[in-house]
UniProtKB/TrEMBL annotation:
This is General substrate transporter. Its main location: membrane. PANTHER family: PLASTIDIC GLUCOSE TRANSPORTER 4. GO terms for molecular function: carbohydrate:proton symporter activity. Residues 14-468 form the Major facilitator superfamily (MFS) profile domain. Belongs to the major facilitator superfamily. Sugar transporter (TC 2.A.1.1) family. The lineage of its organism: Eukaryota, Fungi, Fungi incertae sedis, Mucoromycota, Mucoromycotina. It is a multi-pass membrane protein. The chain crosses the membrane at residues 12-36, 56-74, 86-104, 110-132, 144-164, 176-199, 265-287, 299-323, 335-355, 375-402, 422-441, 447-465. It comes from Absidia repens.
């Protein structure tokens, strides 16, 4: 393996800065949770005292629809303009959308602003992990990609506390305009700073710019020493893989449905879908509503409880950053899903057993009231916190790590784009159905997501191979074995295919 000693300073700086895109993503996701419950915002939207479940779902969902479109559009941009220029473009789009949200004067403008911002967020969520994966040494690739999840959680936490603070101190439009406007600041920092970041060495190699590829690798690995043996070895590995793919690989979207790449596409999409069906965004988007159901009295109290939830989410991401490259992706996903499923099921069972479902006229929906049963209330809140901690330490970061590292260079941008689009598509679905589920089956919502988590555990055990410690160029070997991944966990990698073998595979229709 490549020794990364002496190279981590440059790598960490570049990847941390690029991960500001995750902060924009997290903040914009979290800010709507508090804004949706602010009376000045509700009155500005419809002149009423509450938003219907459909209106709430649309305000959150239009961002996600934009993200879906943005993640698909990001693929051709990442391939032609480069990864870093695509980050710049996505940031500009996000700034425009955030500005429209900040200046909103009605329902129509807020949904337009969130849709435009969503296009930018969708691009960032696809390109940032892709960019980091192509810069990172194999030994710490998971850790560096996980920086995106860490900055997402910091953004969520910041949004919760900013929303709680403005709601406590303002009773006019400033209560929601300030939280919405703050998100422009990190986007401007990213827009200006990304121009000074290096190009992806693998993108440079794919364009035949091998001298620049070596120069970037030397900067990231050996303080600019182009003769360093470890840097040269990685450069040769990248160059050989690029030349092999140019000779035999299909670079169009058709290539995603050939041979082992098809398997990777399916698994990448499943990771992103499963990340949504953990139920995490039912907590993040509708946290104040959920905490009120769990017995936290008052709007401000529920917002503060959500803020604590955001702090826990951030802190629990740190163990994932430290251990994802030691424990591996499979174990973390399985243990995390078991922990989340247990917490969700227990929360739902206690709510169902101790709570009373009744109509809340102020919210115009059915809610679970736990009444004076403080023990049940505290238990449910603790379960929500444990669920969030389980997600932050597992599916939060790994959900972005796994899809970003599994595709060959020839279709990496396309594959990452499609898997990210799947994330946003099902994020949109969840945002639309959760208000309806909370209103109709109330505590059954938690039972549903708990069962989903246990199903995910089984699927990961059976089908998902381990990728830790493998270079991006070794993924063909990792996914070239049996589809029954649990049989291949400790199996050694097969030797890499030669050019003649790859040509033979094409003739047989396997690649």
């Amino acid at each position: 393996m490549l020794n990364t000693v002496g190279a981590t300073k440059q790598v960490y700086f570049v990847c941390l800065f690029a991960a500001i895109g995750g902060f924009c993503f997290g903040y914009d996701t979290g800010v709507v949770s508090s804004v949706l419950n602010m009376k000045p915002f509700i009155f500005a939207m419809n002149g009423d005292t509450s938003l219907s479940p459909l209106e709430q779902g649309t305000i959150t969902g239009l961002l996600l629809a934009g993200c879906f479109v943005g993640s698909l559009l990001a693929s051709p941009c990442a391939e032609t303009l480069s990864r870093k220029r695509s980050i710049f473009l996505s940031s500009i789009i996000f700034i425009i959308g955030a500005a429209v949200q900040t200046g909103t004067n009605g329902y129509a403008s807020i949904v337009v602003g969130r849709a435009v911002a969503g296009v930018g967020i969708g691009g960032l969520s696809m390109i940032v992990p892709l960019y980091i994966s192509e810069l990172a040494p194999r030994e710490i690739r998971g850790r560096l990609i996980a920086f995106q999840q860490l900055t997402i959680t910091i953004g969520l936490m910041t949004a919760f506390w900013v929303g709680a603070g403005t709601q406590m101190h303002y009773t006019n439009d400033a209560s929601y305009r300030i939280p919405l406007g703050i998100q422009i600041v990190p986007a401007i920092v990213l827009t200006l700073g990304v121009l000074y970041l290096p190009f992806s060495p693998r993108w440079l190699a794919s364009k035949g710019r091998y001298d620049e590829c070596l120069e970037v690798l030397a900067y990231l690995r050996s303080h600019g020493d182009k003769t360093d043996p470890r840097t040269v070895a990685e450069y040769e590995e990248i160059k050989n893989e690029i030349e092999l793919e140019k000779a035999v690989a299909i670079t169009s979207y058709v290539g995603l449905f050939k041979g082992s790449v098809r398997r990777r596409l399916v698994l990448g999409i499943l990771v992103q879908i499963f990340q949504q069906f953990t139920g995490i965004n039912s907590i993040m988007y509708y946290a104040p509503t959920i905490f009120r159901q769990a017995g936290v009295d008052g709007v401000s109290a529920s917002l503060i409880a959500s803020g604590v939830n955001g702090v826990l989410n951030m802190l629990a991401t740190v163990p994932a950053i430290l251990f994802v490259d030691r424990l591996g992706r499979r174990k973390i996903m399985m243990f995390g899903a078991i922990a989340m499923g247990t917490a969700m099921l227990l929360c739902g069972i206690v709510m169902g057993a101790c709570g009373k479902v009744s109509w809340d006229e102020s919210q115009k929906t059915n809610v679970v009231f736990l009444g004076d049963n403080k023990s049940a209330s505290y238990f449910c809140i603790v379960m929500v916190y444990l669920f969030v901690a389980g997600f932050a330490a597992s599916w939060g970061p790994v959900g972005w790590i796994y899809p970003a590292e599994i595709y060959p260079m020839s279709v990496r941008a396309k594959g990452t784009s499609i898997t990210t689009a799947a994330n946003w598509l099902f994020n949109f679905v969840i945002s639309e159905i959760v208000p309806v589920m909370l209103a109709s089956i109330t505590w059954g919502t938690y039972i549903f997501f708990g069962c989903c988590c246990f199903f995910m555990t089984i699927v990961v055990f059976i089908f998902f191979p381990e990728t830790k410690g493998r270079s991006l160029e070794e993924m063909d070997q990792v996914f070239g074995g049996s589809v029954w991944a649990f049989r291949e966990v400790n199996a050694p990698l097969a030797p890499p295919a030669t050019l003649d073998q790859e040509k033979g595979s094409i003739e047989k229709g396997d690649f």
